[in-house]
Design a protein that fits this description.
alpha/beta, 18 strands, Methane Monooxygenase Hydroxylase, Chain G, domain 1, Flavocytochrome C3, Chain A, domain 1, 14 helices, seven-stranded mixed beta sheet, four-stranded mixed beta sheet
């Protein structure tokens, strides 16, 4: 098997991976494994912006407090404060690279760039590039990374697993090239920036969502996973069963958008005093309840009252995209539905991105830093990518090289699995998760999900010893085991908190003790984990 040696290996080329690569490259050589699909991943579709304390009318304590409220008691306050305090310098760094954030033309503006407000925030603190912030940031970072002499970008490889050594260190990755021939990339330090797990569900806000592959790969080496039950569903994804997913930014509600049921009722006014600006878990559950009440497959998000000029100014990307789908949002309400969006759980890490496996780091959505707790507040995600990538880079600048050899790769089969069979298994997985482990979970549904996923796992596991290396099969196997751990986490949490809502235990657990994160290892699935 071909093997090559690398210094720092970064898996994933979204905002987190590119930010880390650019910072680490000042002192070390970086290899960035970045498949072309990363251009259509979660980072690009982050429309709203980046939350940071930038206005003189805002302050760190207010941002910290808002984040803690949204996290519903499960945030790590140390991680929250660290992230918020580092936010302004991260934004200054992006500005220095030339990210085209939208300026505020008002002569009385207290900050030169326009700041919007989104759900859960008590102030305008979201800096944005029109309504396509993720794309603007990603394109800028990618341009700088491609020009950097100490960054090598590999877009011809798909990572299917991690390499370890006899001492328990991570030593790089196992890959497949475009002809699905195996390769090993041995590294002194490995950083996962592979995204979240929204691809476990049928409806998502990204055309190419990750399915938690990085989380399971880390768990295979013994890394601890945390808070897997807290999967965020964005309240407002464009409802169009015939077309691809498209996110309708939180900023649409931040600028005054109103949610209406299909019978014209503005239901958020009676659900929460913050109405449409309540945290996402509350809004998503309210929409789900209204859809059940009316029997409609969607609700309406109406911004006609803002006027055509304001809509075109604030939301040019959304306006233009909806026109291509036959919808003029200046004259008609937008049909929206909740869709799987962001994973608040993931690989448990410290403030420098280090996992419980030596020389393995995780940043971005694949990581669980403690910032989001039980529910991520809008636009704290790109902030987390930037802050923890920069912190991880500082740690990596001080790391010493390793010389221990990696252990042998386990995948040696030669049998090719039928592609249609793999698609059917994937659809079965997503259908089970969407029916039983989505916005509202019930005990009977979680029990059914556990049985269905265990049966599917046995079926897939039976072919693994003989199967030839395959990117699609590897992704399915990683996703399936993460789905089972997610169900286990949801069954274990006997309360409703944040994004985990079970009507059979609707209240917070009253134990006199603060709520605890849930922690998981692949061994918790038993021998069938593989």
């Amino acid at each position: 098997m071909p093997r090559s040696e690398h210094d720092v290996l970064v898996v994933g080329g979204g905002v987190a991976g590119l930010t880390l690569a650019l910072h680490v490259a000042a002192s070390r050589h970086v290899t960035l494994v970045r498949p072309a699909s990363d251009d259509q991943g979660a980072s690009r579709w982050a429309q709203g912006g980046i939350a940071a304390v930038l206005s003189p009318q805002d302050d760190v304590e207010a941002h910290v407090a808002d984040t803690l409220v949204a996290g519903d008691g499960l945030c790590d306050e140390r991680a929250v404060r660290f992230t918020v305090e580092q936010g302004p310098s991260a934004i200054e760094w992006l500005l220095s690279l030339g990210v085209p954030f939208t300026r505020d033309p008002s002569p009385t503006a207290s900050y030169p760039y326009h700041l919007t407000r989104e759900g859960g925030h008590g102030a305008r603190r979201i800096i944005h590039a029109e309504d396509a912030t993720g794309r603007a940031v990603l394109d800028t970072l990618k341009r700088h990374a491609m020009a950097h002499p100490s960054i090598a970008i590999r877009d011809d490889l798909t990572v299917i697993g991690l390499l370890g050594d006899a001492e328990g260190n991570c030593r790089g990755v196992r890959c497949l090239d475009e002809q699905e021939r195996p390769q090993e990339l041995v590294a002194h330090d490995t950083v996962l920036a592979t995204g979240g797990a929204s691809g476990l569900y049928r409806h998502t806000t990204s055309p190419h969502p990750a399915s938690g592959e990085g989380m399971t790969m880390a768990a295979e080496l013994g890394a601890e996973l945390m808070n897997l039950e807290f999967q965020q569903f964005h309240p407002t994804c464009l409802y169009d069963p015939e077309g691809p997913p498209f996110l309708i930014s939180e900023a649409v509600r931040g600028e005054g958008g109103r949610l209406l049921s299909t019978d014209g009722h503005r239901f958020m006014l009676e659900r929460d005093e913050r109405a449409e600006l309540a945290p996402r878990d509350i809004v998503a559950r309210a929409i789900d309840a209204e859809m059940q009440r009316t029997g409609s497959p969607h609700v309406w998000l109406d911004i006609q009252h803002l006027g055509e000029a304001a809509i075109r100014h604030h939301f040019p990307t959304i306006h233009a995209h909806c026109l291509t789908r036959g919808l003029d949002i200046t004259r008609q309400p937008i049909p929206v539905v909740p869709a799987a969006h962001y994973s608040c759980g993931g690989v448990a890490t410290n403030l420098d991105g280090s996992s419980s496996v030596p020389r393995l780091y995780a940043i971005g959505e694949v990581a669980c830093t403690g910032l989001h707790g039980a529910n991520r507040m809008a636009s704290n995600s790109l902030l987390e990518c930037l802050v923890f990538a920069r912190s991880c880079a500082a740690r990596l600048a001080q790391a010493e090289p390793l010389d221990s050899p990696p252990l042998a790769s386990p995948w040696t089969g030669e049998r090719h699995v039928d592609a249609q069979r793999l698609r059917e298994w994937r659809l079965c997985l997503r259908d089970t998760m969407s029916r039983h482990v989505a916005i509202v979970r019930r005990d009977a549904g979680l029990d059914a999900a556990a049985r269905e996923l265990e049966a599917l796992s046995r079926e897939v596991a039976a072919i693994m010893p003989e199967a030839a290396p395959s990117a699609i099969l590897a992704s399915l196997w990683h996703a399936l085991r993460l789905a089972r751990l997610t169900v286990r986490a949801a069954r274990t949490r006997r309360e409703s908190r944040g994004l985990h809502y079970n009507p059979e235990c609707p209240h917070h657990r009253e134990s006199g003790q603060p709520p605890h994160p849930s922690r998981w290892h692949l061994a918790d699935l038993g021998p069938a984990a593989g």
